[in-house]
Amino acid sequence: MKNIAILCSGGDVSGMNAALKRFVEYSLTKGLTPYFVHNGFEGLIDNNIYRTGYRDVAGIISRGGTKIKTSRSQRFLEQSYRKKALDNLRSHNIDHLIILGGDGSFKGMQKLSDESTDITFAGIPSTIDNDIAGTEYCLGVDTSLNVIKCAIDSIHDTAASFNRAFVIETMGRECGYLALVSALTSGAEMCLIPEIPYDLDNYKKRFKKEIEEGRAYFIALVSEALGNTEEIAQWFQEEVGVDSRMMVLGHMQRGGNPTVYDRLMAYHFVTHAIDGLMEGHQCSVVCYKACGFSHKNIEEVAFKKYHINEGLLKLGREYARSS
User: Fold this and answer.
1) Which end of the chain has less neighbouring CB within 10 Å, N or C?
2) Annotated catalytic, 87?
3) C-alpha distances in angstroms, 68 versus 39, 113, 167, 214, 274?
């Protein structure tokens, strides 16, 4: 009987607990002994590795975050600590390790793979930024979009009541995916993301014309990657002539009850990860595209830049049109 472990690394996302539940239950059906690594790569270094079972995952599927905690580890950058992590896995006779995280976590996974010959690894893209090359979807994105949707719908009510402009900042690091999809699906009047050039003068002309034609309030989505949310709120007030407020949604975008879609994707991601390890994949990331799931080499994922789907960008460019 082989042993298999799982850990969460980097930012938490809703759907991780659903993945943990599937991991335990599917491992046991495949004749594997499941282990949890608590607190990410830090826990791997500190040997926070424990055998797990059905009792540990009862009732967690509806909870956001991750029961086994997560972390960002500076120590893991040093080879001596990675050796300690590998030695800890070997002390539990662990043959396979699944890592839920983003591209930084996958680069760490590749380091472990390069420095060992007896343990195999699989990555599951898990970041609300949805910025992992090679996959069109990362675990947690749908829940995050729904959290943003609920926030914008509520803001619509007060924006209409006061005839204000609300400038809403979404997460995304260097990627505008959350802001773009949220703008398209919330009826926003403005969307600013790093992938699409924009001209504030064009927006100003159009918005002033729309005010003359009866528009009373505005919803603007801005990606945190631009770093100019406060500036845009001031621009509305000073240039467009509309009272404005800024709202940074922040870490609320990572939490919340996972949606049905994220629970289902967690099920699929974990199933393919375990199956891939059983089939002999040494170090791969489970990716999803419209054609289905696949395993990709780490070089195809962690060392390439993600690009938003061109169809979405085409819709997004309509925001930047001239009046």
Assistant:
1) N
2) no
3) 6, 22, 35, 52, 19
